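Write out the bound-state structure for C2G.
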Amino acid sequence: MVLVKTVITYGTFDLFHIGHLNILRRLRGLGDRLVVGVSTDEFNAVKGKRPVVPFNQRIDIVSSIKFVDEAFPECTWEQKRADFERFGASIFGMGDDWNGKFNHFSDKVEVVYLTRTDGISTTELKRVLSAFDERHVDELKRTLDSIGQIVKELS
Ligand code: C2G
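---
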């Protein structure tokens, strides 16, 4: 009987980016199957996060990734042990921003923490995107107009 090694992970995966893809790809490489718990909007409120992208779109994106075998809703902090059972997971992996936080599961699964991808985060993407918010563009236009006025008066 061939033993299928299942890897499990969790996340919000808001504004899906290369950091999310890298960790999912690397976690899949640790086994034969990868299942991913995607945090619901309600659970994100518990985590103190307000995703830009709604849950149904975030889980659709994650489940469409070729090396993700199944995506399921993550609704609570407490569901992980039941998930390990449900999916027969033998490895539980997260990015190392969670380093040490899930070691208490090591009686049930191998807990691994992989290095995060530098230079990209949902928070940073939100900041860059907000810079292009139309209110800021209007403000920029007004600033440029007043600079143009000053240049005209000086010339
Ligand atoms: N990640 C990464 N590199 C980045 C950004 C994120 O490797 N530049 C990883 C995180 O370490 C995490 C995964 O991508 O393993 C998903 O990140 P988030 O969507 O921010 O997930 P988080 O809010 O940390 O949710 O129960 C666990 C929680 O649901 C984890």
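---
The beta strands are 6-11, 33-39, 70-74, 89-95, 110-114.
The longest helix spans residues 134-154.
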